[in-house]
Amino acid sequence: MLARGHSAIQNNSLSPSITLLLLKGLLRSLLVSFAFILLITMLIYLSPLPEWIVPYLVVVGMLASIISGSMYVGRRVETKGWLRGGITGLLYIVVILVLSHFLNLGPDSGMSLLSRLFLGFSFGCVGGILGINS
Fold this sequence. Notes:
This protein has one domain (15-132). Helix 1 (18-46) packs across helix 3 (81-102) and helix 2 packs across helix 3 (81-102). A two-stranded antiparallel sheet has the order 1-2. By secondary structure, the protein is an all-alpha fold. It has four helices and two strands, in the order E-E-H-H-H-H.
């Protein structure tokens, strides 16, 4: 009898390692984030949307990206979807912070580092839970 989630062997091949799976989830999160930033840019350029709303939209996009990537990871693991989703969220925050440091962008909102890490892990856990139960 199979446990909840997906089996370790699918289509006669072993599932990818956890590290590779986390990197794929991270890449998915970054791509969703990039698409969301493009959408925000088009909205600001083409509509009378005020600019003060941009930081809020960026945070919503960041959280949606984390959930998307962690759901991807959660769908592909058998156990501990919450933990692996949380790790995906933390990795996303770390990559974004490193990129913003190297690109000299500075902080994009008033959130502290600890708040970002907490939100990244929390929303990653939610995405992992949703992914493993879908």
